[in-house]
Amino acid sequence: MSKLIWLVLLLAGCASPKATVMRYETAIVSQYYADSPQEAEKVALKSAQEYCHQRAGEVVLVSNETSYKGEMNQTINTALSKAGSVIPLVGLLTEDKPYQAKLTFRCQ
User: Fold this and answer.
1) pLDDT given for residue 15 in this prediction
2) 45 and 30 Cβ atoms separated by less than 8 Å
3) Which terminus, N or C, of the chain has the lesser number of Cβ atoms within 10 Å?
4) Quick check: helix, strand or coil at residue 23?
5) Residue 62 CA: distances (Å) to CA of 10, 30, 41, 57, 75
């Protein structure tokens, strides 16, 4: 039984991240939080593309908004993150996934 649990945990760790895709009356929104703005945008866009691909369409981007949503000052969080790459314990002080990418799109 414990081998099965380890296998499930291993497979769950290998899964690629997915953004939340929400359909509204006038648009579709893909939203993702990440440690960097680039990662947040990349995953949000990939999820939008997968959503449209399932509906035999292509993504038409209506708007793209990426912002810092962390509680800690962005400059301090960035500095701690860089210091954490040299001194791992310092990296524990950074906020987890403070950047949000929000893509509004439609499938065509």
Assistant:
1) 56
2) yes
3) N
4) strand
5) 37, 11, 14, 15, 30
